[in-house]
Amino acid sequence: MLTGQLAAIVGSGHVSTDADVLAGRSVDHTGRYRGHASMLVRPGCTEEVAATLRVCRDAGVRVTVQGGRTSLVAGTVPEHDDVLLSTERLRELGAVDVPERRVHVGAGVPLAEVQRAAGAAGLVFGVDLAARDSATVGGMASTNAGGLRTVCYGNMGEQVIGLDVVLPDGSVVRRHSRVRSDNTGYDLASLFVGAEGTLGVITGLDLRLHPAPRQRVTAICGFDDLDALVDTGRVFRDLEGIAALELIDARASALTAEHVGVRAPVDGAWQLLIELCGDTDLTERLAGALESAALSGEPAVGVDTSAQQRLWQVREAVAEVLGVYGPPLKFDVSLPLSAIRRFADESGALVATHAPEAIPVLFGHIGEGNLHLNIVRCALSGDRERDLYSAMMSLIARCGGNVSSEHGVGSRKRDYVPMSRSDADITAMRTVKAAFDPDGYLNPAVLFG
């Protein structure tokens, strides 16, 4: 009966109960976590999303929302034979409003399409990720994604200036404004950004765009000492024109050299990728900021586009090799810069104790203290994996960090939220959830479980 009702809403070709299809949709991006779904539904517009939610709620079935399925914390993995609601058909891409520097897009539009549309209009979109070809803007807003340009433009929340969202009861909120200053009532758009689909389904977004810089300079610097790299990162973090500030460890560079032929152009146990953007030549500013840095050798500098792309390849190739030995165990962590050295040392010791054959690879956005620890060649499972995961979460808390920075909580980290949020804070969040979704049927595995 439910299948027929949903087919009547979205069309029979957009509802599937095929076991192979559901199995492929019930595993997370890393391949480590699997769930169970009863049906896949792919609405084609906001109204179809609303009708789908109303039918599912009335039938008493749970719904897990899926975008590009690039979550690294099992945020789109169903646990209760859920109906999977995919936003992949919400692909509207409006005309770029150049004078107002904004564009309206459907939640299912991949990031790369937004970037191309902005670029064709002489503008840039402020968020960039390695998964740009598959990550969708709706999912990115739901997790408040950051990425490679956060130090310059901020997270996804800074780019969202309006949205369409379907609430769990099937009603639709359309929050759009053409003015830049709008202080009328609650800032509902911000409430849904970072809510990981627990409060409603984002179906469309107004996105802020930015002027394209006329000049760029990119550099990779090598360091023997991590503290020296962090000190240099502090200098660049607050420098005018900073556009990217990325940490890469030598273990990551060794993997990219071995498996994809991308070698680091500098020596050192740690590497720092720096990019400055602006309207004038920035090479002197780069040189001045590096003058007192404790480098292990001369930096590699790219001024022209092809040289810059070669340097960026060093950073982006890391994502290509993380799964070379099977699904890695991933940690997305936000740390005070002063704690990064301690975390690097103690996390390495934890890996050596729990998984001696594994390779800990550390990289990420040093400007925000947002680091990604990937444990490659990690064969742990069951209780042994949980023991390492729990020990790492405890280390993050002892270092004064947050258990989630830009990937969200999903279902993988829900048991560790109390390490970063007080009981009163969690109670307040649960109250908000209950107000929007009293039946608790929407994204039930995420955040609270």
TrEMBL record:
Point out the coiled-coil segments of this chain.
none
Q: Which residues form the FAD-binding PCMH-type domain?
A: 33-212
What GO molecular function annotations does the UniProt record carry, in alphabetical order? FAD binding; oxidoreductase activity
Question: Highest taxon of the source?
Answer: Bacteria
Cofactor(s) for this protein? FAD
Keywords attached to this entry = FAD, Flavoprotein, Oxidoreductase
Return one Gene Ontology term, BP aspect: respiratory electron transport chain
Q: What EC number(s) would the UniProt record show?
A: 1.-.-.-
Tell me which InterPro entries the record gives: FAD-bd_oxidored_4_C, FAD-bd_PCMH, FAD-bd_PCMH-like_sf, FAD-bd_PCMH_sub1, FAD-bd_PCMH_sub2, FAD-linked_Oxase-like_C, FAD-oxidored/transferase_4, Oxid_FAD_bind_N
Q: Which SUPFAM superfamilies match?
A: FAD-binding/transporter-associated domain-like, FAD-linked oxidases, C-terminal domain
- Could you say which protein family the record assigns here? Belongs to the FAD-binding oxidoreductase/transferase type 4 family.
Q: What is this protein called?
A: Putative FAD-linked oxidoreductase
Identify the species of origin.
Answer: Mycolicibacterium vanbaalenii (Mycobacterium vanbaalenii)
Phylogenetic classification of the source organism: Bacteria, Bacillati, Actinomycetota, Actinomycetes, Mycobacteriales
